[in-house]
């Protein structure tokens, strides 16, 4: 998907919906990295329950699936968020009813710009090609994501 030079919130929502659809996912989040407070700030979401919106507005680096992907600068995957005991997912994440989930950092070279996450209702192991494809999509939008 080609984004305009100064994407609107509608543009980001369309990008997220298109990305989620490509992977057969029902939820998605896109966060922008704010270096001032070291948090990921929500830019777009789809399929997230209203009660979780306050929680996902601002995510500290290293917290939750998106925060872990941003901190590690690599994909973070959970085959089944509902039964995961790794401690990566934040409390309350199970309310999404998502099982298979994947978050990747949005990188412009080495510079962290944000995080992109998608989720499926069923348990699912994303393969390496899918992880690389989501990383590539994230890299394509990196420069447009930062102001």
Structure description:
By secondary structure, this protein is of the alpha+beta class. Helices cover 31% and strands 27% of the residues. The protein has a six-stranded antiparallel β-sheet with strand order 3-2-1-6-5-4. A hairpin with a 4-residue loop joins strand 1 and strand 2 (39-46). The longest helix has 18 residues, at 128-145. The mean pLDDT is 87.
Features:
31% helix; 6-stranded antiparallel beta sheet; alpha+beta; 147 residues; 6 strands; Beta-Lactamase
Short description:
A six-stranded antiparallel sheet has the order 3-2-1-6-5-4. Strand 1 and strand 2 form a beta hairpin. It is of the alpha+beta class.
Indicate the CATH class. Alpha Beta
Tell me which CATH architecture applies here: 2-Layer Sandwich
Task: Please give the radius of gyration in angstroms.
Answer: 14 Å
Inertia-based shape: globular
Instruction: Note the main sheet.
Output: 6 strands, antiparallel
Low-pLDDT sequence parts = none
Number of strands: 6
Oligomer state equals single chain
Question: At the fourth CATH level, what is the homologous superfamily?
Answer: GAF domain
Number of helices: 4
Strand content: 25-35%
CATH topology, what is it called? Beta-Lactamase
* Helical content class: 25-40%
Instruction: Give, in spatial order, the strands making up the sheet with the most strands.
Output: 3-2-1-6-5-4
Mean pLDDT: 87
Terminal residue distance:
19 Å
The assigned structural class equals: alpha+beta
Order of helices and strands: HEEHEHEEEH
Pfam families: GAF_2
InterPro entries: GAF (IPR003018), GAF-like_dom_sf (IPR029016)
Protein name: GAF domain-containing protein
Organism: Prosthecobacter algae
């Amino acid at each position: 998907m080609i984004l305009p030079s100064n994407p609107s919130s509608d543009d980001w929502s369309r990008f997220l919906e298109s990305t989620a659809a490509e992977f057969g996912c029902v939820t998605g989040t896109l966060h922008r990295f704010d270096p001032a407070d070291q948090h990921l700030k929500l830019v777009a979401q789809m399929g997230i329950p209203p009660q979780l919106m306050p929680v996902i507005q601002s995510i500290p680096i290293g917290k939750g699936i998106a925060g872990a992907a941003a901190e590690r600068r690599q994909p973070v995957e959970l085959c089944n968020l509902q039964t995961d005991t790794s401690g990566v997912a934040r409390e309350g994440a199970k309310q999404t009813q998502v099982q298979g989930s994947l978050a990747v950092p949005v990188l412009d070279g080495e510079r962290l710009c944000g995080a992109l996450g998608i989720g499926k209702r069923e348990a699912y192991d994303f393969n390496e090609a899918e992880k690389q494809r989501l990383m590539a999509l994230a890299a394509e939008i990196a420069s447009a994501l930062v102001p």
